[in-house]
Amino acid sequence: MARVVELLYYPIKGCAGTSVAAAELTPAGLAHDRTFMVTDEQGVFRSQRRDPRLALIRPAVGADGTVITLRAPGADALDVAVDTTGPRRAVELFKNPYRGIDQGDAAAAWLTEVLGAPSRLVRVPPEHDRVTDGLTPGTSGWADSSALHLLSRSSLDLLARKLAEGGAEPLPMSRFRPNAVVDGWDEPHTEDRLRRVTVGDAALGYTKLAVRCAVTTVDQEAGAKAGPEPLRTLAAYRRAGGGGVVFGAKFSVVRCGKLSVGDEVVVEEWGPSER
């Protein structure tokens, strides 16, 4: 029997996540997931691909979502009153234009100091109408693509064995920044074949495999790139037909509801792996 063993949301895209025992699943994913995004002065999003120090920022969102607290090593914590009504400004995510709500000069100054580069903090506006692609279209905030990223422990265990064969150390689940970690599937990459799933009160629809990038090479505790793994090893056995390497699967929200650690993952429909 497969069950959820960890739930995580990432309040600010690219920054550290928060592990929770339970969370509400909204149409855009777990509550508060990727609601905020760091941009440069031109509005282009910052990513660990170029700014690995984002991993050092550990944001916390209050239960009602009205305050976000910014923390990082060597910096004083900053409480930011969340603005959901201010002027919209142009932002860019993967060269796609959107509108965001700037969270003010104090947040911008704090981020600029921590990252060592001019930065702003923006929030998804209430009218955000982004449509995500894949087998089951949906929406999300500032996530790379779909609303929820699911990864199984058996997939990570297989990667650990492959890394060991090449003389490399195992890597933590945090390298892959999942929203839901599932245990109980004996076969690695079972998540590749899910099509419709119910978990707790919610239902998910498969969109696509998770294509991995250089973020997986960033040590999430140190906020620095740490070598070629896991991409080098994944390239040997997880290449996708369309290019790149894949690890984990993405899902859209078909029905909102509460998710909790310990919830059974019930597969309603299976499909073939897209690899």
List keywords for this structure.
3 helices; mainly beta; eight-stranded mixed beta sheet; globular; four-stranded antiparallel beta sheet; 275 residues
Ranges where pLDDT stays below 50 over 5 or more residues in a row are none
Proportion of helical residues: 10-25%
Tally of separate helices: 3
The sequence of SSEs as H and E is EEEEEEEEEEHEEHEEEEEHEEE
Number of strands: 20
pLDDT averaged over residues: 97
Strand-residue proportion: 35-45%
Largest sheet: 8 strands, mixed
The span between the termini is 25 Å
Radius of gyration: 18 Å
- Order of strands, main sheet, comes to 2-1-13-12-18-15-14-20
Q: Could you say which overall geometry the principal axes of the C-alpha atoms support?
A: globular
Structural class: mainly beta
